[in-house]
């Protein structure tokens, strides 16, 4: 998968056919002696804490951006909880009220950032 000088092509092709294998999962060129290790370290199926089966090499990205159990922080109270619980929590948490120190009105937490614009 790389450009090589024409003069070296035949030797290069012989070397590659003896020593290099293309991974059937990711299509990367891997030395034949390392193929078993590559498959075991990159393509073996593991189970995430959310019970989803996923390739080991993809687990880190899954846990960071797609896993429903990944950590998430409430925008209202900074509580850390599982992402799949975030929406329900924020709906409840944002509906709480706090007294405005400026006008004394009880304002829903979700509206506190906008309230100073309309505060008497």
TrEMBL record:
One cellular-component annotation, GO: mitochondrion
| Keywords, in A-Z order | Acetylation, Metal-binding, Phosphoprotein, Zinc, Zinc-finger
Instruction: Provide an example Pfam family for this protein.
Output: TRAFD1-XIAF1_ZnF
Could you name the domain of life of the organism this protein comes from? Eukaryota
Domain TRAFD1/XAF1 zinc finger, by residue range, is 78-120
Signal peptide residue numbers: none
Q: Which GO terms describe its molecular function?
A: zinc ion binding
Gene Ontology BP term (one) = negative regulation of innate immune response
Report the protein name in the record: TRAF-type zinc finger domain-containing protein 1
Q: Which organism is it from?
A: Nothocercus julius
């Amino acid at each position: 998968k790389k450009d090589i000088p024409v003069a070296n092509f035949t030797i290069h092709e012989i070397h590659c056919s003896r020593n290099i294998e293309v991974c059937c999962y990711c299509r990367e060129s891997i030395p034949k002696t390392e193929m078993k290790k590559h498959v075991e370290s990159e393509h073996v199926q593991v189970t995430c804490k959310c019970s989803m089966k996923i390739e080991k090499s993809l687990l880190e990205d899954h846990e960071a951006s797609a896993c429903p159990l990944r950590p998430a922080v409430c925008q209202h109270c900074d509580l850390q909880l599982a992402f799949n619980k975030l929406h329900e929590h924020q709906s409840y948490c944002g509906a709480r009220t706090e007294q405005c120190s400026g006008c004394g009105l009880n304002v829903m937490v979700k509206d506190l950032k906008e309230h100073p614009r309309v505060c008497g």
